[in-house]
Write a structure and sequence with these properties.
13 strands; 4-stranded antiparallel sheet; Outer Surface Protein A, domain 3; alpha+beta; 2 domains
């Protein structure tokens, strides 16, 4: 049996879950999410827990079992506490600032790069414009927006300039060596 799939999903106080067949609607203080899961998965709510079961031990059902449970867990956590990704800007003159809700990034191009947040995502800039925090209730959207921001100026291996995730380690290379 799937080790992830057999774990129940705990529903915290303040979160409402509505299950209709394979359609799951989750509502909480940070927002609401809904998703249509594969019809073969058996999703039920028992008290303050959501249980996901599979019909058979076929490999396709095993794969769907763990994925379905993980997606429901992400929905519940997202609407109750939310998700965030922190990016760090390195480089002389590189900075980020907020213009209303939009994020404006200055990273060495002839123009500033403007990133508009989709619904449910907000930005904050901290530590003298060197850190960007992306927050939201949908884990997938938060991760995608953070990846798009990083893609504006990925870190380079010689001086380490660019936008990187806060936990990311950049492998540094030695530059050219002169004549001896």
């Amino acid at each position: 049996m799937s080790r992830i799939g057999r774990l129940p999903v705990a529903v915290p106080a303040g979160v409402e879950v509505d299950i209709k067949g394979s359609h799951v609607h989750v509502k909480g203080p940070r927002g609401q999410m809904e998703y249509d899961f594969p019809a073969v998965m058996i999703i039920s709510q028992e008290g303050k827990q959501i249980i996901v079961k599979r019909p058979s031990d076929e490999s396709a059902h095993k794969a769907l079992h763990g994925m379905t449970r993980a997606l429901i867990q992400n929905m519940v956590v997202g609407v109750s506490t939310g998700f965030e990704r922190v990016l760090e800007i390195n480089g002389v003159g590189y900075r980020a600032e907020l213009d209303g809700k939009n994020l404006v990034i200055h990273v060495g191009y002839s123009h500033p790069v403007v990133v508009e947040p989709p619904y449910g995502v907000n930005f904050s800039v901290g530590m003298k414009t060197r850190q960007i925090v992306v927050r939201g209730h949908d884990k997938q959207v938060v991760g995608q927006i953070a990846a798009d921001i990083r893609k504006v100026r990925p870190p380079e291996p010689y001086k380490g300039k660019g936008i990187k995730y806060i936990e990311e380690k950049i492998r540094r290379k030695a530059g050219k060596t002169g004549k001896v």
